[in-house]
Design brief:
Layout (H helix, E strand, L loop, with lengths): L2 H16 L6 H8 L13 H19 L1 H4 L6 H16 L2 H13 L4 H28 L8 H19 L13 H14 L4
Helix pairs in contact: 1-2, 3-6, 3-7, 5-9, 7-8
Length: 196
């Protein structure tokens, strides 16, 4: 393991245990066993480390979640259900729980992190759903409506539950306990918009 990798892994553990704001670069250098000034050869700031942590989360999403949106050959119910359940499983893995528990509260304090999370968690899925709904409407498989509004209505339900997870006293496996409710949301949405 390189020094930079060691700093990165120690940062995740220490930020998760003690809090991002409670630790300085000097503390991280000490935990790795290097001089305080040496840490700046690898990271310019704590924020840069945090953005690397965010990039690990995004890499996981690109590998496990984004491809699900491209599988539009599935019938709509299976398309929605697969995205919903596989996304839940992804975010409930121990590593992703650790990363999101660290990152989500900090999105309100760090502008660069806020911009990334807004884009990846809100704008990209919403745009993908809007495109999908437009396709369904053109094929006569969905009631004509505003595709972006439909995307917001559909996706907001999942965003709500994702954020609720971090406000509960028992966040671990929170999303998995609501899978039947998520399926009911899919049914309700499909019935309302007459998706076949």
């Amino acid at each position: 393991m390189t020094t930079k990798e060691s700093i990165y892994h120690h940062a995740i553990e220490l930020f998760s245990k003690h809090g991002y704001h409670q630790l300085g670069m000097r503390d991280l250098a000490k935990s790795v066993g290097i001089k305080a000034s040496s840490i700046y050869n690898h990271y310019k700031s704590k924020e840069d480390i945090l953005l690397d942590i965010c990039n690990e989360l995004l890499d996981g999403m690109k590998k496990h979640i984004y491809p699900l949106y491209k599988n539009q050959s599935l019938n709509p119910r299976l398309f929605f259900t697969t995205i919903s359940l596989e996304t839940n499983k992804f975010f409930e893995t121990p590593k992703m729980q650790q990363l999101t528990k660290l990152l989500i509260p900090l999105q309100y304090e760090i502008p660069r992190l806020k911009e990334i999370i807004l884009n990846e968690f809100i704008y990209k899925p919403r745009t993908a759903y809007s495109y999908y709904f437009n396709q369904l409407m053109q094929q006569g498989k969905m009631k004509k409506t505003d595709a972006m509004l439909a995307a917001k209505i559909y996706h907001s339900f999942f965003i709500y539950h994702f954020h609720e997870k971090f406000l509960t006293n028992e966040p671990n496996n929170f999303l998995l306990t609501y899978e039947e409710l998520f399926k009911s949301h899919i049914d309700f949405f499909m019935n309302y918009f007459e998706i076949s």
